Structure prediction request, 216 residues.
Amino acid sequence: MMLRSTRIARLVPVAAAAGALAVFTASCASPSQEVASVSNVSQPQSKYKGTELGIPTPIPPVTLTGVDGKPYDLKANSAGKVTLVYFGYTHCPDECPTAMADVAAALRLSSAQVRAKVQVVFVTTDPERDTGPVIKDWLAKFDPSFIGLTGTVQQVDDAAKLAATPVEPPKKNADGSVEVDHGTQINAFGTDGVAHVVWLAGVTPKDIAHDIALLT
Prediction:
């Protein structure tokens, strides 16, 4: 099946605070055009290299499905850990693999002590094509410890909304192409169970490693 995608603009009500920043939504394929959407804001002179949230976002209290087919309680399994959550899909040729590669590189830059406190969770926004084995094999290219989750389209949408991440159900077009639109931020939930910072396109593995150390 041919894959086609676009990027769309929309308002993303992540949190209210003074000022605004651009968060990109993407469908991770070519051809495409970047369109900024209005989202949460960063605090001035933040200690983070990423974008500090004006209002922290709690980790979604949802149960999805792991690559082994078993239920996975995201909140319960994140207790006491730094949990990095990304919504994307395996057919994505640009934003998604870049995000996973950057996080993997950041963890390699981190000490063993820090790495032991961090888990990475990838939630597919294309559950029909991203089966458990597909997600597992794809994540293994970056780091086999990365956790892959799936669910129904509604379950994924609910989880994304709670994580203040814009996603839309995959759209099948008459020509056989598929559009999968999703927010491209990496959500960093601290050991307190809330996200104080997100990483947008343009951050480096070194930036991510810096912030992870602050969160652990």
